[in-house]
Amino acid sequence: MKILRGIHTAWGSLVFGILFLVLLPLFLIPIVFPSQYKLVGILNRWWARLLFTFIGVPFRTEYRAKLDPKRQYIYCSNHFSYLDIPAMGLAPHNAIFVGKSGIETVPLFGWMYGKLHITVDRKKLKSRYTSVKRSMEAIDEGKNLIIFPEGGIVTKKDPVMGPFKDGAFRVAVEKQIPIVPVTIPYNWIILPPDEFLLRWHPLRVIFHTPVETAGLTAKDIDTLKQRVFTIIDQELKQHLKNEN
């Protein structure tokens, strides 16, 4: 079984790399011309759909409410697997990621990621401050954001979330931008972070009803954070129950 999973993983890595090289010239457009930032989200959707199709992972997106294409959102998702990044590429809005600076160490891909998205070294106070500042600037520029509020893959017991960081919620309150909680229930099964071996299982991404922030202040950040956590957590527990 592990041999088959190893072959599947090698194929998945090859497909990921080929798609990256094919799409890289197109990703250069918003790098050279930042005003074309909407291309990032469009290309991410192409990449994600092609990736999951070619590696044989059936995927489905679900919406608990209709998302307004004319509004800006901050997408906040649980994070149990490296597969969560391409999964969030399926987000319907053209969005950029706020992610760990360690990705920038990956040859070529890291360079592209650092140019198009916002990176943060959570061990450094200055970097955390800069990422929040850049996130607010991105909102002012009309961009949507995708943030993993756990701050990385921190869970020690899948699928149990770690505590949320404040950054996403601070930006949402400051800019009065609604948050879309997102539940990704099965990626920890498909690509466990401690094995990095693919396992076949359908992939689902669930976009919940946006949580409005209009009228909220800094005093409400903890309450907002808990509300979003609870929405995602309850969905995760339901799927875990069904899985068992």
UniProtKB/TrEMBL annotation:
Domain of life according to the entry: Bacteria
Going by the UniProt record, its keywords in alphabetical order are: Acyltransferase, Membrane, Transferase, Transmembrane, Transmembrane helix
Quote the SUPFAM superfamilies the UniProt record gives.
Glycerol-3-phosphate (1)-acyltransferase (SSF69593)
Question: What InterPro entries does this protein's entry cite?
Answer: Plipid/glycerol_acylTrfase (IPR002123)
Q: Heme: is it a keyword of this entry?
A: no
Q: Which GO biological process entries does UniProt record here?
A: phosphatidic acid biosynthetic process
Any stretches that span the bilayer, and where are they? 12-34
Pathway(s) annotated for this protein in UniProt = Lipid metabolism
Determine if Transferase is one of this entry's keywords: yes
User: Listed GO molecular functions?
Assistant: 1-acylglycerol-3-phosphate O-acyltransferase activity
Give every Phospholipid/glycerol acyltransferase domain span: 73-187
Q: Which PANTHER family match?
A: 1-ACYL-SN-GLYCEROL-3-PHOSPHATE ACYLTRANSFERASE
Q: Which protein, by its recorded name, is this?
A: 1-acyl-sn-glycerol-3-phosphate acyltransferase
**Species of origin:** Chryseolinea serpens
